Amino acid sequence: MDVSKLTLAGQINLKDISEGKKFYENFMEMTKNPIKHNEEFLLKLLDDNKDTVYGKKYDFANIKSIKEFQSKVPVTEYDDYIEYILPMSINGTKDLITSSEVDHYCKSSGTLGNPKKIPLSKAAQKSMQECTIAYFKALAANKIGLDWVDSKAMNLVELSIETLESGATYGAISAKFMFEFKDYLNELFTSPFEAFFPENDTNTRYLHARFGLMDKNIGMVQCAFYNFFLEILRYIESDWELLVNDIEKGTIDETIKMSNEIRKSLTEKIEPMPERAAELREIFKQGFDNHIVKKIWPNLAILAGTGTGGFASYAKKIKEKYTGEDVKFLYLGLNASEGNFSVAYDFETTDSIFMPNSIFYEFRPVESEDLSNLLTLDQLEHGKDYEIIITNVSGFYRYRMQDVIRITGMLNNMPKMEFLYRLNQTVNLAGEKTTEIVLRNSLNKAEKEFGFDLVEFSMYPDSDTSPPKYKFLIEALNIPTDVEKEDIRRFIQDDLSKTNPSFGDKIKKGILGEIELGYLFEETYLLYRDMMIMKGTSSAQLKPPRVIVNESQRKFFFALIDNEL
């Protein structure tokens, strides 16, 4: 391939592939003896941090094995670090929990109330860039070739970033990465800067869709979660005439929300594209039910993002209706503000493999409440579920992530895993312990049984009623006119009772009340998403609240129940 003839996007993609190849090959080698590399990582990390305040407190200097580490250092949660994070983020105090420089703090997920400040060291950033950019591009080149290389990507993140008193930045890690090469964004991605770092009330769905449709040669779509891409496709389906008219004329329809300054800035970047508009108009007139994505973007090869756990249903809908088998799905593994815990090893597989040289892992079997005998990578069993506990390079030690994973097999000697749910999204009103995955599966079955399109759902565990009960709220499209709400409600309750016999038994005994079901207004979850982004939550971390866990969420969703349905 003649590099000199490539676009800037193509040249950068090839550079990333070249750099990622050695990471990919090294990583595959580590799968042969992962616990060896994981222990080496831990011991080096402890040695590097032995002179920190935390390291001195727990005698890092004299820890020479995993067992000594487990016996001397306690299992922790976020509150255990507040006394260190406050002076770090306010005053820039160093060497408290990590010797590595911390110049960025991540906001935690916006579904659980006030966001936290998660320290992210420069060492962690380097590791994350290697495995999220270079590694996965090298993987793509190895598995599907290079046809996608010389093209821009559609990237669907929406971000915000601010500066703390210490001078460190604060926001999603992707915001820091994107902001650092903001001058090149238009060369790498279809969406404009105004979509990545939007002002309040800017219609970013329009911007992502419109600028994406303008570029016929897109090779990859990148999104934090697959529901973002589904959201864009649904927007195109409902508003394609407006989008095509604007592309044809080089205008921005006056109904599209944005400030006058943003409208002026964007208008200067676009020109009339009558030929592309005519092409798109013919495609859209044929309908959206026959894998339209490859007609819109014939060179699109990769859809990369999170499509497991609570996002599996979105991946299924995208593939069944919009892409078919011609676009390869790359599920990016388990990632969080605290680090990247696993990476993909192939396309079209929902499991992933651990990264033994960037995180030290411990595991609690979910059937046990015992935190005194945690397991390591070499002790995991196929088919079993575990809470993952991590030690990272940013100052968290034996930190409970609240994430539950399942071991799905082995790659060489490396366990393969799949994310299931978060512990704080488990409902336990009366000892029944219903997980978010069980709730989601029952709703997906109801969707299939009654032939409607489930956009999203939330469930409020109401402990203030007597007896306590589950209150489901769903946003759904195309509910058949002959389907009664009571039919869906009864189906969900019966399915939950079969899946979780403890739930069903408590319903029969009156310990739990019968479930309630409410229909939400159309676009409720889009409104929730926009509201949270306006409050400073990054779309890269914003997940739908499947279990309503605080009063602000409860008030928001219950205020949007459509009582006429």
TrEMBL record:
Kindly state one GO CC term assigned in the UniProt record. Answer: cytoplasm
- Give the Pfam families listed for this entry: GH3, GH3_C, GH3_M
**Protein origin, superkingdom:** Archaea
A single Gene Ontology molecular function, please?
acid-amino acid ligase activity
The GH3 C-terminal domain extends over: 439-550
GH3 middle domain: residues covered: 353-422
Protein name, as recorded? GH3 auxin-responsive promoter
Q: Which organism is it from?
A: Methanobrevibacter cuticularis
